[in-house]
Write a structure and sequence with these properties.
Blueprint lengths: L21 H16 L8 H11 L18 H21 L14 H16 L1 H5 L3 E3 L5 H24 L10 H11 L11 H20 L1 H33 L3 E3 L7 H19 L6 H6 L9 E2 L1 H35 L9 H7 L8 E6 L6 H15 L4 E4 L8 H9 L5 E9 L6 H18 L2 E9 L1 H7 L5 H16 L7 E3 L6 H22 L1
Parallel strand pairs: 1-2, 4-5, 4-6, 6-7, 7-8
Antiparallel strand pairs: 2-3
C-alpha cells in the first residue's frame, strides 16, 4: 500500500486535534486495503461503497470543495472517512458472516498481560524457596541479582534515550531486546481462518493479510510502549512478590541471614552492603551493619547467621527505592506515551490518491437535476447509489428530483408534463433498462419527442440518457458469451436512441465504475453544451 497516504511524523504533534485515533485508523486502513486490493468490486461491491459514501456524509458532514494538496485532512473529512469505513465494515460482515472478519485480531490480548502479571508475582513470591529454604543469602539472587538486573535496564534505557537524541529520532521509549521480542510475538498472531476456496474469499484473505502487515508496521510504536509498560509492571510485581513472600513466610518461619563466597572477603561484602543499602538506611534512619557483624554472619565454621528481620526490612526498603518506584514511573511514562499515540495515531494526507479521489466532491450550484426511470423500478439501494453518482457528477449542492417510473403507454403524459414544467432543470436524466430490447418505434420515438418537448417548454438545459446494466448482468453474467452479448446489446441501444448530440451512458448500479461514469457523462454532456453555445 502507498504509505504516502500518511504524513507519518516520528514525533507526533500532540497539539493537533485532527489526528485519527488508533481505533479509527484501524477501520479506515482496513477498508482502504479492501478497496485497493479489490478494484473490480468482487468482494465489496462498488454499489455498497457509494451507498456508504452517501450515508457517511449526511446529515452531519458535507464534503467541501476539495483541492489535492499535501495537507492534513480537516476534522469533518476525517469523520467522514471513519464513518464510511464503519458502514463498509458492517456491510462486509453482512456479506461474509462465515468469514469472522475481525480487524481487532492484531490487538494485544488482555489475557496475555494478566498471565504475565500473575507469573511475575508468583515467581517473586516463591523465589526464596528456589534459593535456599530458610536461609537468606545476602549475595545471591533474587535480592542482589534483581538489583543488578534493574540497574542494567536503567542504564540501557538511558543509553538508548541519549543515542536517539543525538540521532534526532523520535522519542521511542524503552525498546530493548526483550520488549522488541515480546511486541514482535504479539504481531505474529494468526489471522482468522477464511475459506479461500472461492475467488472472492481469496481476494478477501489477501486484502486482510495486506492490512495486517501494514498495521503491524504502523502500530509498532504503540505495541512497544504497551509491551514496555507490561514489562515494567511485571518487574514491580516480581519485586512485590519477593518482599511479600519473605514477610509472609517470616511470620511462620524464622529466616537466617548470612553469606558465603569463594572470592569475596568480609571487607568487600561490607563495602558492597554499605553501597547497596545506604540510601534506604539513610532515608529510614536504620543503621547499616558494621564489619564485625558481617564477619559474624558468614556461613562457615558452623555459623548459622542471624535473624534476618533487620536485613529483610533493609532489602524491602531498597527494593522499593530502586525497583518499585523507578519501574512505576517508567510504566506510567510508557502508558502516557501509548495513550498519546493511540489518540494522535495518524495524520491522513490530502495528497494521497486514495483520499483525494474519495473526497473530490465539488459543491456545485443549487441547480435542479430531474431523474426519471423508464419502465424500470429501482430499489432503495440503487436510488442511493445513483444519488451518490449524481453528487460526484454535479456537486453535492445540486437538488435531485426523483420521479416515478414511466410505464409503457404513458409516454405522452410525461412528454406533456416535460413541455409545461414550471421550473427548468439543469439536466434531465432518463434511465433505461439494458435488459429491454430497444425499438425505434417506442424508445427511439420517445427520445426524439422528448427532445422536442424540452425545446418547446425549455424544461431542461441538458438531456442525459443512462442505461442500467445490473439486471442484464445478473441474468447473463454466468454464460460463456456474456461479454459479447453485453457489447451487442449496448450497440443496439446506441443505434436506436443515439445521435450526434446524444450518446447513452451505461452504468451497472450493482457494481458501478465511478471513473468510467464520470468520463462518459462528461463526453455525453459536452456536445449538448457546445450545441447550446452555437445556438446562442
Amino acid at each position: 500500500m502507498d504509505n504516502a497516504y500518511f504524513l507519518i511524523k516520528t514525533t507526533p504533534d500532540f497539539g493537533r486535534d485532527t489526528h485519527l485515533k488508533e481505533s479509527d485508523a484501524r477501520k479506515v486502513l482496513f477498508v482502504r486495503s479492501i478497496e485497493e486490493g479489490d478494484p473490480a468490486g468482487a468482494v465489496l461491491p462498488k454499489a455498497d461503497r457509494l451507498v456508504a459514501t452517501r450515508k457517511a456524509q449526511l446529515p452531519e458532514i458535507l464534503i467541501s470543495e476539495y483541492k489535492t494538496e499535501l495537507r492534513p485532512l480537516n476534522q469533518k473529512e476525517e469523520s467522514f472517512c471513519v464513518r464510511r469505513a464503519e458502514l463498509l465494515i458492517q456491510t462486509l460482515g453482512d456479506i461474509y458472516p462465515e468469514s469472522r472478519i475481525d480487524i481487532h485480531s492484531k490487538q494485544w490480548k488482555g489475557w496475555l498481560s494478566a498471565s504475565l502479571f500473575f507469573l511475575a508475582f508468583f515467581s517473586g513470591f516463591i523465589a526464596n524457596e528456589f534459593e535456599s529454604g530458610r536461609r537468606l543469602n545476602l549475595l545471591a539472587f533474587p535480592v542482589i541479582g534483581m538489583l543488578i538486573w534493574n540497574f542494567a535496564v536503567y542504564g540501557y534505557i538511558g543509553f538508548t534515550r541519549i543515542q536517539s537524541n543525538f540521532k534526532k529520532k523520535s522519542k521511542e521509549i524503552f525498546s530493548g531486546p526483550i520488549i522488541y521480542a515480546v511486541s514482535s510475538l504479539s504481531h505474529r498472531q494468526m489471522l482468522r481462518t477464511i475459506d479461500s476456496s472461492s475467488e472472492r474469499a481469496s481476494i478477501l484473505n489477501r486484502c486482510f493479510l495486506n492490512f495486517s502487515r501494514e498495521w503491524s508496521q504502523l502500530s509498532a510504536s504503540i505495541y512497544k510502549n504497551h509491551t514496555a509498560r507490561v514489562m515494567h509492571v511485571c518487574a514491580v510485581l516480581f519485586a512485590v512478590g519477593i518482599i511479600g513472600g519473605m514477610y509472609v513466610r517470616g511470620i511462620t518461619t524464622e529466616y537466617y541471614a548470612g553469606w558465603e563466597s569463594t572470592f569475596l572477603e568480609p571487607v568487600a561484602v561490607h563495602r558492597l552492603m554499605s553501597v547497596v543499602l545506604a540510601p534506604a538506611a539513610l532515608i529510614t534512619g536504620q543503621k547499616l551493619p558494621k564489619l564485625e557483624r558481617i564477619k559474624a554472619i558468614q556461613w562457615k565454621d558452623g555459623s548459622a547467621g542471624e535473624n534476618a528481620a533487620d536485613w529483610i526490612h533493609l532489602f524491602a526498603k531498597t527494593i522499593f527505592l530502586f525497583v518499585i518506584l523507578p519501574r512505576c514511573f517508567l510504566a506510567f511514562a510508557a502508558l502516557k506515551r501509548e495513550k498519546q499515540l493511540q489518540i494522535h495515531f495518524l495524520t491522513p494526507s490530502a495528497g494521497d490518491s486514495y483520499y483525494s479521489k474519495l473526497l473530490t466532491t465539488r459543491p456545485g450550484q443549487k441547480e435542479l437535476i430531474r431523474f426519471v426511470p423508464y419502465s424500470l423500478e429501482l430499489s432503495d439501494k440503487q436510488m442511493v447509489v445513483f444519488r451518490s453518482l449524481l453528487d460526484q457528477t454535479f456537486g453535492w449542492k445540486t437538488e435531485i428530483e426523483f420521479h416515478r417510473t414511466i410505464p409503457y403507454g404513458e409516454e405522452d403524459k410525461f412528454l406533456n408534463a416535460a413541455a409545461h414544467a414550471e421550473r427548468a432543470a439543469e439536466c434531465l436524466i432518463i434511465l433505461f433498462n439494458l435488459s429491454s430490447i430497444p425499438e425505434n418505434e417506442i424508445h427511439g420515438t420517445f427520445i426524439a419527442n422528448l427532445k422536442e418537448a424540452i425545446a418547446v417548454g425549455h424544461s431542461a438545459k441538458q438531456l442525459l440518457v443512462a442505461i442500467d446494466e445490473s439486471h442484464f448482468d445478473f441474468r447473463f453474467s454466468h454464460q460463456e458469451n456474456s461479454k459479447e452479448r453485453l457489447l451487442s446489446r449496448r450497440e443496439l441501444w446506441k443505434r436506436t436512441i443515439g445521435s450526434k448530440t446524444l450518446q447513452p451512458v451505461f452504468i451497472n448500479l450493482h457494481n458501478p465504475d465511478v471513473d468510467d461514469w464520470l468520463i462518459s457523462v462528461r463526453e455525453a454532456l459536452t456536445p449538448l453544451k457546445d450545441k447550446a453555445k452555437k445556438n446562442e
